[in-house]
TrEMBL record:
Residues 3-229 form the ABC transporter domain. This is P-loop containing nucleoside triphosphate hydrolase protein. It comes from Mycena belliarum. Keywords: ATP-binding, Hydrolase, Nucleotide-binding. SMART domains: AAA. GO terms for molecular function: ATP binding; ATP hydrolysis activity.
């Protein structure tokens, strides 16, 4: 297996609900797994741990049969949304100079393929371009070096639909031809049906549905959960179930979300701001 996790648990702080609770999975080389889950389900935390960005004390996390913390495996690429907000990459630097500074000249053929695919202008200045254009530069930067395991955390969120589709087709070909493993957490499911080899469902820090074949194989026993649904409809149904489950938990003591319509005593902040409200 390319990625193996056994009984992984993680909490951001003491005395809080765990972000991950005894998560286990195994991904073979060449697989492309899409993780479905609502905000706060634990998807980003899982990917960050796989990338070695968060140290854990409970559970075994291995990539290419190497401990990601004690024997860091080569060939692992992590791409997340926070890159575009880094002040370093928002400075006044020409894109061509930026790519050369991070070693683009070492992967010229692959770099140029991505520049064309993502429609990047080498004369862009990083401080003047849009978030979507900056995201395209990030993808060139992150993908130009061949990887064995690619961890994607909502990294297509700023892309227009055409560039996103071209990118996903490139990643699919890359996975098929080189046997690279891709783990992709996203909330954008339209046009994604053809991409994954398997899908997984995370909720409340748990892996509710482990990586499962996609598209579903023929036969009633294998189609029992998915039927002939699209990935979008499966994701929508899972998220609805998660929301209903959370509301049941709230009835049994979990902190409630939403407006507090039953409160008769104003909060401290309401009292304070009313006192200094001069709009009336």
């Amino acid at each position: 297996m390319s990625v193996v996790i056994n009984a992984l648990s993680y909490a951001h702080a003491a005395n809080v609900l765990p972000a991950l609770d005894t998560v286990s999975l195994a991904l073979p080389p060449g697989s492309r797994t899409v993780i479905v889950g609502s905000n706060g389900a634990g998807k980003s935390t899982l990917l960050q741990i796989l990338a070695g960005r968060r140290l854990v004390s409970t559970g075994d996390v291995r990539i290419k049969d190497r401990d990601v913390f004690r024997d860091s495996p080569p060939g692992v690429t992590f791409l997340g949304t926070e890159w575009a907000m880094n002040p370093v990459v928002r400075g006044d630097i020409v894109v061509s100079h930026f790519l050369d500074s991070v070693g683009g000249y070492r992967y010229k053929e692959r770099r140029d393929q991505l520049i064309d695919l993502l429609d990047v202008d080498l004369e862009w200045r990083m401080h003047q371009i849009s978030d979507g254009e900056r995201r395209r530069v990030q993808l060139v930067f992150g993908l130009m070096a061949p990887y064995d395991v690619l961890l994607l955390d909502e990294v297509t969120v700023d892309l227009d639909v055409l560039v996103r589709d071209d990118l996903l087709r490139f990643l699919k070909r890359d996975s098929e031809t080189r046997g690279a493993t891709i783990l992709y957490a996203t909330h954008i499911f339209d046009g994604l049906n053809y991409f994954p080899t398997q899908i997984a469902h995370m909720a409340f820090g748990r892996l509710v549905t482990p990586p499962t074949q996609w598209p579903p194989a023929a036969g009633p026993e294998l189609n029992a959960e998915f039927g002939s649904s699209t990935l979008y409809s499966v994701a929508l149904q899972w998220l609805k179930e998660d929301r209903e489950h959370r509301r049941e938990l709230e009835k049994n003591g979990r902190r409630e979300r939403g407006a507090r319509r039953n409160e008769t005593v104003p909060s401290d902040s309401e009292t304070f701001y009313k006192k200094y409200d001069y709009s009336h």
